[in-house]
Amino acid sequence: MAFVDALSGLPNRRALDETLARLSGEYAIAMVDIDHFKQFNDTHGHDAGDRVLQVVAQQLRRTHNGRAFRYGGEEFCLLFTGARAREAAKACEESRARIEASRVRIRSAPGKQRRKSDNARKDLIEVKVTASIGLATRDGSTRYASEVLKLADQALYKAKAKGRNRVFAR
Fold this sequence. Notes:
- The protein is an alpha+beta fold.
- It has one domain: Reverse transcriptase/Diguanylate cyclase domain (Alpha-Beta Plaits).
- The chain is built from five helices and seven strands.
- The chain has helices at 13-21, 37-44, 46-61, 88-101, 145-161; strands at residues 27-34, 67-72, 75-81, 103-107, 124-128, 131-137, 167-169.
- The chain has a five-stranded mixed sheet with strand order 2-3-1-6-7, sandwiched between helices. A two-stranded antiparallel sheet has the order 4-5.
- Helix 5 (145-161) links the parallel strand 6 and strand 7 (167-169).
- The longest helix has 17 residues, at 145-161.
- The chain is globular.
């Protein structure tokens, strides 16, 4: 349990840190951040936010040749090792598109008193979420995984600065 995030079911940051410590050779790291997540939580409530995290984790788990981790908050990490690193940008774009195509069912009007006669299904709405992804690959100028992770985080900020809901590879 110490290596698994209870909400998402993904390996957690501790598992990521241990995995990164053992890495060598060719690899790529992608940082994934749910766009406007704080605003979403403020509008829809934390239960709805938790549901979004679960759906995004489910989509990231399906990333071709990548291993998904919950980094913390609304951030996730994808790790591509060996020859798979060469196809990481394509896999990230596919994951981004799957997240955008997902519809998350949440309860409407958080905190609002509901009458007992209300049909629970009428209280459900579908929302759309998007994610920004920053990708970095280990190359001759990056020796340590922590450096690649930092570059992926910088690429994530560039994806957000360019309008969000996109992959930016450095």
